[in-house]
Amino acid sequence: MSKSSIKNIGVLCSGGDSPGMNCAIRAVVRTAIGEGLGVYGIQKGYEGLLENNIRELNVSSVGNILQHGGTILQTSRSKEFRTPEGRKKAADILKKRQIDALIVIGGDGSFNGAMALHQEHGIVVVGIPGTIDNDISGTDYTIGFDTAVQNAVEAVDKIRDTANSHARTFIVEVMGRKSPAIALKVGICTGAENVVLPTATIDYQKIAGDIDRGIKRGKTSSIIIAAEGEEAGIGYTIQKNLKDQFHLDAHVCILGHIQRGGNPTPTDRLIASQMGHSAVKAITSGQNASATVYVNGKVSLAPLADCLRKKNEFDVSEVELLTSLSI
Amino acid sequence: MSKSSIKNIGVLCSGGDSPGMNCAIRAVVRTAIGEGLGVYGIQKGYEGLLENNIRELNVSSVGNILQHGGTILQTSRSKEFRTPEGRKKAADILKKRQIDALIVIGGDGSFNGAMALHQEHGIVVVGIPGTIDNDISGTDYTIGFDTAVQNAVEAVDKIRDTANSHARTFIVEVMGRKSPAIALKVGICTGAENVVLPTATIDYQKIAGDIDRGIKRGKTSSIIIAAEGEEAGIGYTIQKNLKDQFHLDAHVCILGHIQRGGNPTPTDRLIASQMGHSAVKAITSGQNASATVYVNGKVSLAPLADCLRKKNEFDVSEVELLTSLSI
Amino acid sequence: MSKSSIKNIGVLCSGGDSPGMNCAIRAVVRTAIGEGLGVYGIQKGYEGLLENNIRELNVSSVGNILQHGGTILQTSRSKEFRTPEGRKKAADILKKRQIDALIVIGGDGSFNGAMALHQEHGIVVVGIPGTIDNDISGTDYTIGFDTAVQNAVEAVDKIRDTANSHARTFIVEVMGRKSPAIALKVGICTGAENVVLPTATIDYQKIAGDIDRGIKRGKTSSIIIAAEGEEAGIGYTIQKNLKDQFHLDAHVCILGHIQRGGNPTPTDRLIASQMGHSAVKAITSGQNASATVYVNGKVSLAPLADCLRKKNEFDVSEVELLTSLSI
Amino acid sequence: MSKSSIKNIGVLCSGGDSPGMNCAIRAVVRTAIGEGLGVYGIQKGYEGLLENNIRELNVSSVGNILQHGGTILQTSRSKEFRTPEGRKKAADILKKRQIDALIVIGGDGSFNGAMALHQEHGIVVVGIPGTIDNDISGTDYTIGFDTAVQNAVEAVDKIRDTANSHARTFIVEVMGRKSPAIALKVGICTGAENVVLPTATIDYQKIAGDIDRGIKRGKTSSIIIAAEGEEAGIGYTIQKNLKDQFHLDAHVCILGHIQRGGNPTPTDRLIASQMGHSAVKAITSGQNASATVYVNGKVSLAPLADCLRKKNEFDVSEVELLTSLSI
Q: What is the distance between the alpha carbons of residues C55 and C53, in angstroms, rounded to a whole number?
């Protein structure tokens, strides 16, 4: 589809919500209107698209939303859209509404859906990486990560007060599924004594040794940050093993959904605004299947194909930094 | 012991830590010094007393602590002190140090220990109610409650973002053991659709009906606040029952120890400061076994004997208020 | 007007906005609907009433507002309403709309307007005290005070970081006009070395002496809390006098409007909810000119006539507490 | 001086304090000890160095400081150190203490001092950029910037509540002296209607036109972010001109020192930790006059000579982004 023929764009959020999505929506809407495009908000992700849950957005629709967490468009996961029939139906709905391009804010799963929609039905698509897990290939940053880390760090700072007051060990489980990103940054930023990453085998001997060494050098508490991995609850496993193997008592806190919400941090607001703006510019400049990415400290465009995988690597030097600073 | 003969006082925290304890310690220390008394900080509660873990505090010892959660004196629970032999040993240590009066910041258990120490060994004691649970008889307020509620409310505000974005039901479990105080105030202050109190039988029919009604009238989410009761984990029970009996999906968040920490709110700072000040004045004015209490909106003194029980009542009109406002 | 004849009520905010007003509005609307009444939101205070800026509110109109500062009804100050002609016009508009009772959320000025409307035109009125200044006669609390104090205390905590790092004196000017309430509570809660109240003559000799004494005993900083008084800017006067008379350097921070905004604290949410609920109950129980007040730690009803004056007294024991704890 | 001969290093903060300095100090101390070096904390910057205000730091000296704003080493500006005689004296003190290398956390002025000390007396120096203004050449980031922006954004979010409630225009003056960095990021992140940068001529016609257009399209408030420039107070000038030239009323808020303090954000904690670690590694690897910088999204080392100038440029595309999103 040539650049000039696009008249209307749609925007939706898909997968887990993340703080900053509203900033991206606001930037999409206002940039689109500034470019003379019509812009349609699709409620509840691909699910809502299939239900024709769509309304036109204007400049005021996105007023006073950039400071709030969550997403005014709501989000969901859709089974039907994962089928070719579902995507055919979605494409028909978009075409009937004369929506020629779709901006999808979400994770790698949402991007794969967008790519299929593009390949099978020629819809112009742009992906904006939005997930607190920071685990999408091709970008150093995904919207919501900074706020999630901020929420978790504030929580651990509070837990540290109690840990110090009782001379206790705490295991704090943070979100991120198989991504180590939240756990690692939270660990460094809270001075955690240990961090347990999702892909690693847990070295209980080392953890127990560190706790013991900490007590001997006069530390009043120990904090272990654990990435949740495939399923929440790993904190309890660690607790049991420390107790069974080393007679060490530890308390468990699973931070859970408090990490996802709240007012987005300035960094999330800025990057989300830049990405939303950039996504519309990608469409008006004739890109077909692209994604906004954050590379080398800047927002730019990349082929959507580069951003379809999960990314769970981490920089081992960051683990060393954590270890060398929490002595 | 006559008023004039008291030269030194001790101060300790006992039981769970609560934000604002540092404000009370600061007030005790500086008021005592202003009154010409020596003041000794006993580390780690009755346990530390039995270990003679005591140091003299001066004006600077408590500088820049009032804004921080936890307690610089640390706290603990002691088994030994619950025995007559333990208390005899504690009294001997105090007498040897010429500490004639003891200020105990803690809950009803800590107060019972103080009362026994007074009755068996003639130590002048004053109790300052410090627990986030707000469950001590004889006082409308205990230090830490306001901060705990604030922490929980901020957390639920964040969870509401995600709940709205996904059109979900969340069960948020708050602290307070058998006390309904935190759950009830948090429920009203977050516009929770339901609150489950520790003493009540859970009416699943009503909860399910409320969720259903909320969806029908267009609500984008439901939040149920559950008091932890005897043991953390009730949230999972509620989740299972809603699923099994009504096929309702709900997410669980156990807020846990993030409720205990963090900078104390102004209300906790003020009341703790007034109570710490008042506790020293009680000693210098010749009181024997008293407690600082908050009644009718003001800090005053009461017999310690009035404050030895747990208080788990609640005002049913507050439940009605919550219900009538969350329609 | 008899109890049974009231079918519709109006609600407006007047004067300066204060955090928690939204909670009161929500409580008014939902309680009224629960009582079978129609409820109308009047936008922009008496000004909006005179412009017939009125819309019916339903249960959803006040969804998801209790956690936000400001007021969805907006507020203003009106000159026209202060004239008998203005109030006649307002009463006519209300009557034409069949709004028989009016709930006014605001300060003493707003209450005087409500009282005149009642006396001159028989409109049933209820006042809900809403101002951050906590300066209305007849009630110990006004909605917004706790949040304003919280905002100011958080700000001073931050300023203390810099003050300590540079060994500086800071003068922090807080809101409250001629009311000493914010300044006094903030002073105690931040461990301020001095507090300057609006009605007192400023004793520069004492302030300079305190700073000097603090430095000698090893304090790393001094903070003076100044109530703004009639007009913002007193901080600069204090700064100049300390410099001119004692060669003391001090930095000035005027906290300004950051004190008014932000998510209301739990205490503001609770009391505002109770007051909004209680105001509607006052109407349905046949009260004519009443106000919701907070006395002895509880929300109750009082004659509106008791709440028409400004209250600028303070408890001198609180100043003594501040002084004795900041040694 | 060859790599192997360095046995002790000193660390100081200089110029204005910035949140995250404590993280850098902690990282310097613990990395140095891990490398087998002695490490000395110099209190109060170059001033304290000249006063021999130096103490050895150990692992525990920097425990529980990373979450707090300000700097435990305190900071200052020194006139004497700007003279060759002052630097000679400083070098002598360092040599007498066998401190062979000095890590300076501060801004461009502090770096110039370090460079002179290196050139004149052969002291090994490393600069760590620490200033909220983000205005040092050679690095994209300086410690404290993220927290300052976060503090300012939270404040403007609160002011927005009042602005909306009263349909007002607010001028919010932020820190940064001649650097546009804080103003620009805060402007984008708060959806400000205008931003006034320190180097630009103020286009009152445009500002007034924007406010007018906003009112016409239904906006409930306008916020103008103004960079303080050479001296605080520009907000009042803007207010006067809008009033005199366009009869527009606007309120002024000068955020002031609340921007400098408070718990550092995760980003400041992380980058400061990495920089502190990296600075010690620079010394042990034989660098002579280097600085830790943040370029392309990563911490690395650069010649100190690259970081001696103030940097006040800004990306004009960010102004365009702000303008296009605040329509």
A: 7
